[in-house]
Design a protein that fits this description.
This protein has 306 residues and is α+β, with helices and mostly antiparallel strands. The protein is 22% helix and 37% strand. It folds into 2 domains: 2-134 and 294-304, Diaminopimelate Epimerase, Chain A, domain 1 (Roll), CATH 3.10.310.10; 138-288, Roll (Diaminopimelate Epimerase, Chain A, domain 1), CATH 3.10.310.10.
Length: 306
Amino acid sequence: MELDYRIVDVFTDTPLQGNPLAVVLDAASLATEQMQAIALEFNLSETTFIQRRPPEIERAEGVRVRIFTTQEELPFAGHPTLGTAGVLLDLAPEIAENRVIALALKVGRILVQFDPVAAGSHVGSRVLFGEMTQRDPEFGGELDAADVARLAGLNRDDLYPELPPQIVSTGNPFAIVPLRSLDALARLAVRHKEASEWLLARGARWFYALAPEPDADAAATQRWRARMQFYGGEDPATGSAAGPAIAYLVARGVVSSDQRIHLRQGVEIGRSSDLFLRARLHGSRVTDVRVAGSTVPVAMGRLFLP
């Protein structure tokens, strides 16, 4: 069996920055065990598998995509969604309607809108700028700040007292942890084994820590930084956590309804990523959670399987 694949860098317009993603094309014949083995072979934070179906089904439900880390399948993840949609727009533009790609993920139907104005930030480039609309957020319980600080390798005073850590999900549950400063963010050192067990008992998987950047023009565009340490390493960009983060900030009144903020992630590990986030507040309900960024292709190849 031979299968083509693409590798793209997501949440960046610069090759070898952002979060790399492997996208395996025409993977309908693969078993789950084979997909997991291929994801381990690529050894990236995530690998996706496109499983094409008849056109009438794809029009109604979207293109089926499965997402794997090196250890497990995920129902939803942000940079795999954006990156896979960009690959589909490039290779099969006929499936897009008004530059919208619909994906059928395990979490449900997710839409990605590509901006024809922002597409290709350099002459002759193949950069695509897309914005995904995530599921409406589900807000879980608030977490004890002292416990969170200890498990994150921080001091209690590093956390905002008026912004308590809270579990939020738009498909994957994260513990959103607002910090006072970039200095605190730089000292993040999650105790992975203990933190994982503690979070699982409370309905989440990982901490997503964020802090405001000093910004003279904060009234126009708020700027934030974030980090997400998991599996003993660190993620360059986590779109499935960025959605819950903007939902949290809008719900708490830190960010205005439908105000786009610029969030950078991966700076500390040399893979700078740029995510653009917004959400709407209708009464007391947060909805229309959107996470945007660029995707750039970096490699293509073929898998040779038994």
